[in-house]
Write a structure and sequence with these properties.
Blueprint (H helix, E strand, L loop, with lengths): L1 H43 L9 H61 L5 E9 L5 H8 L7 H8 L2 E9 L6 H13 L2 E7 L5 H15 L1 E9 L3 E2 L1 H9 L7 E7 L29 E10 H10 L9 H8 L6 E4 L10 H7 L6 E2 L10 H12 L5 H4 L3
């Protein structure tokens, strides 16, 4: 018991002292923690040294971002410029196409208004000429080839006349420029894609028919030399009688000897093809003037690359029709002589369509004598006005 009593009294005192000490210690710890917290907080909010680098880093990031952004904007801008240029080109092309279309429509309307659209002509006359033949051309213009308003009336009647010439061996040279100047003055040339030369007459003939049949839809296509006199109304009446024939070859038919001796005029290098020496050519129209129907001109155009050319163009033309179903029309009014021959025939009521001198293969000294022949053997001045084809 005594043991219990001692134990109880001594334990209470010890507990009381421990409580006081604990309270004081707790307060001390609280104040210590408070001040320690203040010190720690101040230290934590102090700006660290490394933060001095942060603006640079930010600037670098901004620069990189701006660089990327600028590149993107630049690329977009370039693309937009390219698109804009492309659109401008397209607009320009569309405008040009529209202008060309409008021009074509205008020309078509003009052609339709003037009656030239798909118009049918009666005859197209090509006057074979050379660079050196200016005076010959002028003599023709002054006589049987209508000029100015009369030329327009003639075409309204269905007759087209052009001087036919190719180009010189020197393209754009003085010879070509002279023809261009003459064309500007008269407007009566047909230029062929052909190099001029006497030995190239057969080639020129093929090119001529191939060209005119493409340019004009006509019943007849005619070739005539520039030193020959022609009465247009009489020629038209002769051809009108054969208008319904599909394949007709009209001229003054002949069959001359094949000349095998070199150096002579009209020498035939291929004489051996015509048999024994002294043989004659097949029947063909003399070269001063001949006419062919549209079907034959078309045949020449289609087959021009395989048609053989003899040195003489009238022989070549006749050879192209051998083996075809062609009607040869031999009319002596297409090869009358100059006065007095054509004169007395006119008095007898048989006006000549074509006049020339056989010995010269044309009118001898045609520049000086064309007017004489025209006055003596020419048809009535109103003959064309009254003619109907």
């Amino acid at each position: 018991m005594s043991v219990k009593g001692r134990g109880g009294v001594g334990g209470g005192e010890m507990w009381s002292r421990n409580v006081v000490v604990s309270r004081n210690l707790a307060l001390l710890l609280c104040f210590s923690s408070f001040f320690a917290g203040i010190l720690f907080t101040n230290r934590m909010w102090t700006e660290p040294e490394r933060t001095n680098l942060e603006p640079e880093a930010c600037d670098q990031k901004l620069k990189v971002g701006n660089h990327i952004s600028n590149n993107s904007v630049g690329q977009i801008s370039n693309t937009q410029n390219d698109i804009s240029k492309f659109n401008s080109k397209i607009s320009s092309i569309e405008m040009k196409l529209a202008a060309a279309k409008a021009e074509q429509q205008s020309l078509t309307r003009a052609d339709a208004a003037s009656g030239n659209l798909k118009r049918k002509y009666f005859m197209v006359i090509g006057i074979n000429t050379a660079f050196s033949s200016r005076k010959r051309r002028d003599s023709v213009r002054a006589t049987w080839m209508p000029q100015g308003e009369e030329k327009k009336k003639l075409e309204e009647k269905g007759i087209v006349i052009r001087f036919v010439i190719g180009h010189s061996s020197t393209a754009g040279g003085i010879l070509d420029r002279a023809i261009e100047a003459e064309e500007m003055m008269h407007g009566d040339f047909l230029r062929l894609e052909h190099v001029e030369g006497y030995l190239e007459l057969s080639s020129k003939t093929k090119t001529y028919f191939s060209t005119v049949v493409a340019l004009w839809d006509a019943d007849f296509y005619i070739k005539v030399d520039d030193d020959v006199h022609v009465n247009l109304a009489t020629l038209g009446k002769i051809l009108a009688g054969h208008k319904k024939k599909p394949r007709v070859y009209v001229g003054c038919m002949k069959s001359g000897p094949v000349l095998s001796k070199k150096g002579v005029r009209y020498y035939e290098p291929e004489y051996w093809k015509f048999g024994e020496a002294g043989n004659k050519y097949f029947r063909h129209a003399t070269g001063q003037l001949y006419a062919i129907s549209k079907d034959l001109a078309t045949y020449i155009s289609v087959n021009q690359h395989i048609l053989h050319k003899y040195v003489n163009e009238d022989v070549s033309l006749g050879s192209w029709f051998i083996g075809l179903d062609v009607e040869h029309v031999d009319d002596k009014r297409l090869c009358c002589g100059t006065p007095p021959d054509c004169e007395w025939k006119a008095h007898l009521g048989s006006t000549c369509a074509v006049s020339f001198d056989w010995k010269c293969s044309g009118i001898c000294r045609s520049v000086e004598r064309m007017m004489e022949v025209h006055k003596t053997c020419g048809e009535d001045v109103n003959a064309l006005d009254h003619a109907s084809f």
